[in-house]
Design a protein that fits this description.
The chain is mainly beta. The chain has no helices and 10 strands. The chain is 0% helix and 49% strand. The protein has one domain.
Amino acid sequence: MESKRVSECPSHGVGVRPDYLVGRRLEQVVASWHLYDSEALSGLLDAWLIDSEAVATRITTGSDWCLIVEASAPFAGYDMEESGRVEVAPISGETPFADQYGKTVLAVSEESVPDSGRIALENTFDSGRVRCETWSGGLRLSSK
């Protein structure tokens, strides 16, 4: 399945077309979260899908609530002093993608709205789908 061209985000552009994921195996997911004091990780900020070609596809939300999809390597975590820190690490069972590790992406589809551009990306595997979407300005992953 080929994705249609999404409308362009006024702030971030259209990003990459994730069609290149079709036919590649999902090998790993790396994510970043906000951590404040010693609290548990909260607020998923970014997810990087690492595929069988060693390409990292970053999925995150923009300040205008668009869904940004770009080819970029995970960055290192960083300290924001009294505002907490951002942790970046590979994830396994904590993600809807966990059941898809080692499986091939069969199709991708995107949803968009005229004023914000892309708002959702759905990856289809033989055993299910994983949806990445902007939700009230945050990144949300869910499986179907």
